Amino acid sequence: MSKELYILGAGSVGGYLAYNLSGISSDYKIAGFFDDDPAKKNSTVFGYPVLGGVDDLLTLKDVSVVIGIAFPSVKARLYEKLKQNSSIEYPSLIAGNAWISANCKIGKGVIIYPGCSINYNTSIGDFVVMNMNCAIGHDCTIGDFTSLAPSVSLGGRTSIGSLTEMGIATATKQGVKIGSSTVLGGNSMVIADIPDHVTAVGVPARIIK
Fold first, then answer.
1. CB-facing half-sphere around the CA of 83: CA atoms within 13 A
2. What is the rounded distance in angstroms from the CA atom of residue 121 to the CA atom of residue 105?
3. Rounded to two decimals, what is the model's pTM?
4. Is the predicted pLDDT of residue 25 greater than 90, yes or no?
5. What's the CA gap between 109 and 71, in Å, rounded?
6. Which of 12, 36, 115, 126 is deepest in the core (most CB within 10 A)?
7. Once rounded to an integer, what is the mean pLDDT over residues 29-36?
């Protein structure tokens, strides 16, 4: 029997899950959304009701929740609040046609879209969102709450910190280290290490902020 799953965040990631969960996992069925946007309260979004905000979600016991949000800092802030309720389970939802090699580690609350490929010895942290058609090389590390936009390609042994955003079609050469709370602009090519708390863009990627 399928468990009820609540989606926190009635935006684009939540919409993807609402329309496609049946092709991702037969273990869960969507019971509704929670979202702090007052304009969405008591409405129907993507075919499911918005049942309240995060404070309302905290009142439920022994429930399964997916944080359907791509923005790293927002995901982290919401999870800090949700930790008040230790009975919440955070399943990882991986598209059926994603390829994940043996000997990979996937954390909790991870969302992996269709077409992604993850090679061996790779570690994916908690609450990572990996959008369509990302290609992750061997021995990579991706930190908690980090989000990869569509078609990100990581060379082998790339390391990405927590709370980082990788823009559409960003790529790295092998062995590059990218810091935490950093933003890489779309179509950037990273050929050298990038520190924490910066924004970098271009080919090759250069720090602009």
1. 6
2. 8
3. 0.95
4. no
5. 14
6. 126
7. 95
